[in-house]
Every structure is written in C-alpha cells, then in structure tokens.
Design a protein that fits this description.
Length: about 775
C-alpha cells in the first residue's frame, strides 16, 4: 500500500493506487454528484442517504459538489441547513463513510462555490467581484481570498470554483456581477492574487483550498449578452484578451480549471482540444485538473448537438481533456461501458484519474481528510472577516457624481434624511448571486448603516420603500413622497437584484414592513441566466425618482446592482450618485461611511457605463477603427473606465520616461508626480496606459498596463514609478506569437482612461 505512505513522492503514490483500482473505481473518481443530496438533516442529526451509500460501495465517488451549499436550487434553507459546526461534522460523517466503506479508502474531494465568500450558512458574504475589482486593491483582495480559504477549509471544503476570470464585453449579460470588469490586465492581477490567497503556501495547509479558474474561455463575450451564447472571436483577440488572465493564473500555480458552456467558432469549450490540450497543457504546462461546469457534457448532445448521444458526448469530453464531470451523470452512465466496448482507450481514462488523484494527494486529503468543527465554529463569520468585508465594500464603492459638494453629509446637525427606495432595506438585494440564505440581522442595509451612524439622533432618519425593483405597483409612492417632504435630504437607493426566491415574502410598500406571504415576490433582474435587453432601471424606479426630484430637495442616488445602469435622467438630475454594485453583508455600513465622510471614496470603475444600451459594445480598449459617433450621440460612455470621484482633488505633473529610447527587450522607468491638492486625505488609483502608434496589426488606442493605489495626505506629493518593458509593449503579431515591434509608443498616466498625461517612448530595432 505505497499510496498510503506519506513519505513517498506523490507520483509514486498515484501510480501505485491507480494500479490497484478496478475500472468502476477509476470512473468513480471522475464523477461529482451533488453533495446536498448525500445526506438528510433531521432534528439536528445527519443521516446519509441510501443512494449515496450504495454509490460508495459500488465503486466509489470521487468528489461532491456543493456539499455545504445552501440556496433555493439546493432546497437548503436556514432552517434545514447546517451551522458552521454542524457543516464540518456532516462533511466528516460523509468523508468517513467514503473512506471506511470503499475498498481502497480514497477520500472525497469536496468542491464549493466561493466567488465572494463560501456559499454556506454562516459564512462571511463579501462584495461581489465587480465591487472587488472596483477597489483596485490587489493586496486587500488577496487578504479576502485567504479569509475565504480559511472558512471553506475549516468545514472540509478543499476546492473552490473561483475565481471568475471572464472579460465582460456586454453588460446585459446577467453574470457581469461575477466578473472583475472589462480589462484583461486588471483581471490578471486579481487572478494571480486570488490563486495566491486561496492556495496559500501549500495546498495541504488547513488554510488553503485549490482554486478553479473559470470560465475557460471567452464566456463574457457571448452573442447578444446571452448566457452561454456563441462567441464570435478571432484567434488574436482570444490570445491577447480573454486567455491572458487564465495564463497568468496558471503561471501562479492554479490547481484546477473549468471550461465554459459556450462555443467558439463552432467548437464547444468542453471539447475544444486546441484550448484544453494545445494551449492549456502543452503551451502553458498546466498539470492540474479540468472539471466541467454543471451539465456541460449533456449539453453537447442536447444543445450544441455535436454528439449523437450521451455516450458520444462523454467520450468526446474525456478525450478532449476533461478529467471530472460536475454533476457526474454522463461519465457515471457511459464511461465504464465505453471502455469495455473499446470506444474509449484505458490510457485516456487513466490519465484523467491520475490528475484527480494527484490533486487529492497535493491537498493532503489522504493524511488529513477531516474537518475541525471547533475551528469551523471559530473561523467562519469571525469578527475579523466581517471587518474585512466592510473595508472591501468601502474601497469598492464608486462616487460617480457630486454636484456642488453635496456629499459628504453632515453627521452632526438637525437635518432629516429620508432613506427611500426598493434597495434601501432589503438585505438579499445587496448580496448578489451565489449567496446562501442569511438571517435578517446579519446584513447591514443602507437604512441600517445610516441609522447606526446616526444612532444618537434616530429621529433624523426616515424611511419608505416607494416601490419594488420589478413590477408596476405605485402604491408606495404616496408614502414615499410624504416621507421625503419631512426631510432635508433624500438618499434614494435604487438598482437591481440578484436575490433568488428564498420564500421570504416581500415588503409592504406603504409601511416598509416585511410581509411574509404564501407567494414570495421576486425582484431578480440580474444573476446567472438573467440577461436583459435594456440597461434601464427595472419597474417604476425611474418614475419614483422623478416625482421625488420635484420636491426640490438634495437627492443622493445610491445604486445597488450587478451590472451598469444607463439612466441619463438620473445622471443629469441627481445631485450625487454612488455606485455600490452588490456590496455584501456590510455594504450598508460602507455606504454610510462614505455618505458621512468617514471614508473618502476611492473606488474606480472597472467597466465602462454607457449613456445608452445602443452604444454597446462600449468597452474602452476597442480598436481605433470602430468610429467616433452615432447620428444621435457620440460613442463615448457616460462614465469611462477607471473613473471615480473623491472628496479631495488630485493633480498629475512631470510625466517622464527614462530612457526615452530602448532596445527590443529593454525596459524604461515611467515616473509621474501625483499631488493631493484638496483638504482631505484620500486614495488615488494611478493608472498607466500604453498605445502603439503604428503596428502591423491593428491595436486599441490605449491599454491598461499598470496601476497603483496610493494614499495621500492633503498637500502631499508622491513620485509614482512604473517599469515598462516587453510585458507592457508586446502584442500578438501576424504569426500569432508575442512581439515587440520597433517604433514609437505613447505612454499615458492619469486618473482614468480619458484623463491622462502622455509622452513618447521609442523602441529601436535590435
């Protein structure tokens, strides 16, 4: 039993174990049933299902998906779900049965969703990736990933299906909220930080989980912004843009990767050998595990229609490089027979099994398969993690408008504040998709945050919901207008919702009280599978805003949403606008921190916000040839990439490049002086862009190639420095290989893509 000897090299242990396995046991390692279906939680007791026991005894199960996941899809609620301690105990019971009742005692791989926190009851809910990207704070995001890994591993989860590295090209797409933004360089920096944070110093650490990069690749560029729609993308763009974050994360040591549902140029990603073998394994040297998205293999036969039936789909997938199937149905039903009939070579099966076993050994599961319930209880939802969630939200909220310095509001004084809107006090609406059920007390809404900040003067805070996200009911307008009339300032909290139907009922529009009914109202207009034709506010929210504006009081709009909102009327008439995206469980406190000036806003947009949906695509790094205007308007977004206001002002000066001429393969130092010219301390995101003046292949006018978030006191000046070399100057040339062409480049440094200083850098031919 060499495989049980931890002193032996991993590959020797894998070879030994593989040689002992039957065909059924090998296939068992490649399937991943739904974890929440393996047990029943009755009266505080965990009872394993007979179907799971039978599956273990008949060849084994390699992995479980979402063992700790809770949401309407799983049917796991706050009442039936598992506490942090009970979750760890349940994992241990399942793991113990799998080890003790299978012939070879191979531990399970527990895979969990952790895009913005472990999707389990009690876990900390951080802001969604769109907010996290808006922080432009790589170190802080890495710290969050470390915290997520601690919480997940403490309960027995060993793999997470994150980070999401899709480059968003059409924000009508419902999964925009799960992504960092539209720029591949920024996403790459966060991708590396994610792998470093999640995987830590070693996969076998009790503080580490294996990262799974998804969705490989081009998922954010679907036709019409429709989820899993076809992608029409040239090879050069694929290499330069969408593959870049994945490549950087693979180089950082990512242990797992997940192909996307869609097709590129007629080939589904699940069976794309060029991507899964030629690029990923041969060119990049990836030696980890490849797992499908849920149901992706079945889709080959009933959706893409590139397979005759389930057996053909399963064979195509494993031959293309798939190692494990999430949900496990196709592999479970067809692989054993495929091998026995000669349709599938044993060597192909063995290769997939080898990769799964290797990951299990790297994770230390054979030595330490069990969770620590005491540690889970201590770590999950800890005070430190909650504080981190608030800090991330505070740094990710973007101030888009601040007319006449209406913000920050005065925390001291007698003026009343009317907090109005469908997202003012609905906790689920600010959490985003892929979130577990939450007790009401855990989520700080905007109303909660403002009331907490003004706890010494509760009479200053008034509230009315006004309307819902969706629907045409105006029954709450009268109460909202009456409430606003009593106030000096209106804080109007609008936006969207990715809240699944948790059966929580809705709110009484006339009183704002929770109203539990037999039929819960769904405000969901964003999230996976919720793609839109429009970027306007849903329902009658804009109508409510217009009526409130007629009262003539200062109106501060706070957006809580999962994709950009294009509402020209609000852009023009609101006195101030905060874009919070989905800011997580501490989002309301963070919004209040900014509204009252306890935090100086430092979030910057990672996705362009258009004036109108008709401008799409509007991402900043499109080609020069795309044109400058339409008949009705220009092609510039309302708020450009990198944009965000502060309560202070920053100026840029003395942009220099030294030397001004470098050889191919050489480097130059770019420096600029940044000064806080205002009266408040604040953080500025200094952004470096490069433009190739002339190239053999068309290029964007500007591309982000570096950034630094710096903190400056009033009057303070700092010299910011970047290094520019091959990494920043190369592009994919005519032969589809990276090249740095000799010639002139423009170097830009500034506060956002349309507000920069510029100078020239010349690359001479070797």
């Amino acid at each position: 039993m060499i495989y049980k000897d931890k002193t032996k090299p991993i590959q020797e242990r894998v070879d030994n174990l593989l040689g002992l396995m039957t065909l059924e046991e090998k296939v068992g390692q490649l399937i991943q049933p739904f974890g929440w279906q393996t047990y029943e939680h009755i009266n505080g007791e965990i009872k394993l299902t007979e179907s799971f026991k039978k599956q273990v005894e008949n060849g084994g199960v390699g992995s479980l998906y979402g063992m700790l996941r809770a949401d309407p899809w799983t049917g796991v609620t706050l009442e039936t779900g598992l506490s942090p301690r009970k979750g760890a105990e349940a994992v241990n019971a399942i793991q113990r049965y799998a080890i003790e009742h299978s012939r070879l005692g191979i531990p399970l791989l527990i895979g969990e969703e952790c895009s913005h926190g472990h999707m389990a009851i009690g876990a900390t809910v951080y802001p969604v990736p769109l907010t996290l990207g808006s922080t432009w704070n790589v170190d802080l995001y890495r710290e969050m990933c470390q915290a997520v890994a601690r919480e997940t591993r403490s309960q027995g989860g060993a793999v997470t299906y994150s980070p999401v590295l899709d480059v968003v090209r059409d924000p009508r797409w419902g999964r925009t909220e799960e992504c960092f933004g539209e720029d591949p360089h920024l996403i790459s920096e966060l991708a590396v930080a994610s792998v470093e944070g999640l995987q830590g110093e070693g996969l076998d650490s009790p503080n580490s989980v294996a990262a799974t990069l998804k969705h490989f690749v081009g998922y954010g560029s679907s036709e019409g912004g429709r989820n899993a729609g076809p992608v029409h993308m040239g090879r050069r763009e694929l290499l330069e843009v969408d593959l870049l974050p994945f490549k950087k994360a693979v180089q950082a040591g990512a242990a797992s990767i997940m192909p996307a549902y869609h097709e590129i140029d007629g080939v589904p990603c699940t069976t794309n050998r060029e991507l899964l073998d030629d690029v990923l394994r041969k060119e990049w040297g990836f030696d980890g595990m490849v797992i499908t998205d849920c149901g992706a293999i079945e889709m080959l036969a009933t959706g893409h229609d590139v397979a005759e039936d389930g057996r053909d789909a399963a064979i195509q997938a494993i031959e293309a490089g798939i190692d494990m199937e999430m949900s496990g149905v196709m592999f479970d039903e067809h692989l054993v027979e495929a091998v026995r009939s000669g349709r599938l070579e044993t060597a192909v099966l063995d290769q997939a099994v080898r990769r799964v076993l290797t990951l299990k050994f790297k994770l230390g599961l054979f030595e330490s398969p069990y969770a620590d319930p005491d540690r889970a209880e201590q770590v999950i939802g800890s005070k430190e993690h909650i504080e981190l969630a608030r800090k991330l939200a505070g740094e990710g909220i973007v101030l888009l408008k601040n007319k006449d310095g209406v913000l920050p509001l005065a925390p001291e004084g007698k003026g009343k504040i009317a907090v109005i809107g469908p997202n003012a006090d609905v906790g689920y609406n600010q959490l985003g998709d892929y979130t577990s059920p939450q007790p009401r007390s855990k989520v700080a809404t905007v109303l909660t945050g403002i009331r907490s900040r003004l706890a010494d003067a509760p009479e200053r805070v008034l509230y009315a919901p006004g309307c819902r996200i969706n629907g045409d009911s105006r029954e709450g307008f009268e109460h909202a207008l009456f409430t606003a009339e009593q106030a000096d300032t209106i804080v109007l909290v609008l936006g969207g919702s990715s809240a699944r139907d948790f059966g929580e009922g809705s709110i009484d529009l006339k009183t704002g009280a929770s109203k539990v009914t037999g039929n819960a109202w769904s405000d969901m207009d964003c999230g996976e599978g919720i793609d839109r034709l429009s970027l306007h506010l849903s329902g009658v929210q804009l109508e409510l805003a217009k009526k409130l504006h007629k009262l003539g009081k200062p109106m501060v709009v706070v957006y809580i949403n999962g994709r950009p909102i294009a509402e020209p009327w609000i852009d023009e008439h609101a006195d101030a606008i905060l874009e919070a995206w989905y800011p997580g469980q501490e989002g309301g406190h963070a919004v209040a921190d900014i509204l009252f000036g306890d935090i100086n806003p430092s979030g910057r947009l990672t996705i362009s916000i258009p004036k109108d949906v008709g401008q799409l695509p509007v991402y900043y790094n499109g080609k020069r040839s795309r044109g400058k205007r339409y008949l009705e308007n220009d092609s510039q977004p309302r708020y450009p990439f990198g944009f965000g206001l502060s309560y202070t002002e920053f100026s840029y000066a003395n942009l220099t490049v030294q030397p001004e001429v470098i050889p191919q393969g050489g480097t130059a130092k770019v420096t600029a002086k940044v000064t806080n010219t205002g009266k408040r301390a604040g953080a500025e995101v200094v952004q470096l862009y490069i433009g190739d003046v002339a190239s053999k292949v068309t290029r964007p006018a500007k591309e982000l190639k570096g950034f630094q978030k710096i903190q400056l006191a009033p009057g303070e000046t700092r010299l910011v420095e970047f290094t520019v070399g091959t990494e920043q100057l190369q592009y994919i040339g005519q032969d589809y290989k990276p090249v740095v062409e000799p010639g002139d480049f423009r170097v830009y440094v500034g506060g956002h893509v349309n507000n920069t200083l510029s100078t020239k850098l010349t690359v001479r031919e070797d």
